[in-house]
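Narrative of activities, Objective 1.

The group set out to show that a structural description can be obtained from nothing but a protein's sequence at a throughput compatible with the screening campaign. Below is one input-output pair from the validation batch, recorded exactly as produced.
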Amino acid sequence: MTPSPPINTPPAPPTVEGEGNNAPAEVPFRARWLPLLGMLVGFSFVGMLLIQRIGTPPPSVPPPPPTVTSLSFVELPTLGVSLLAPDNWQPPALRSETSFVLSPDGATDTSTTAGPFLYVVVDALDVFSQQLTLRTDYGEPAAQLDALIDALNRDRARFTAAKPYPNVAGTAAFVEGIERGNELRIVLIKTESGRWLYVGAQATQAQFPYYDVTVFTPATKALRLTK
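Output recorded for this entry:
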């Protein structure tokens, strides 16, 4: 019996190292770089935010009030008035023949944009009754001041009712209020001689407590008529 020729079997394909039923498929090149690219983008965004924040100027803060040094008595012979005033402020300046203003730079502006200042009117009821419809016969400072505030057309909702103001030469009452970011105090003093003094103090809300302690209250309590 003649033997059959051998059957030519095609060679098996070469085996790749590590390849098998459980071997993971090779990750494409771009897919391997995507996480790294995401991290770089994130770091860049955070860096831009930090640079922007560092370059942003801080919110504006009102400057601190100038330091008030010691107080000394000053006199205004024209009005016959004396009071305590800061040594490093300008002297009180006449605003009219019956009034003066005490301010750091000697200005006489008493508008809502001015301040700090102390505004004093001598013989106040006589002066205001010539300009306003005002009763002047109350006699008692609190009632008289309430009438004056109403005549001045001040917004009563922003002002307290008049209360006694102690430790002055005579008897006095005061009201306090807020107008356009300013804190105000108005004191009406009935002197021992029966004359009336109007004392208005104004500064920003932030600075009023400072000026009240250092200037407004000492000056008001020391206010005297000298003639």
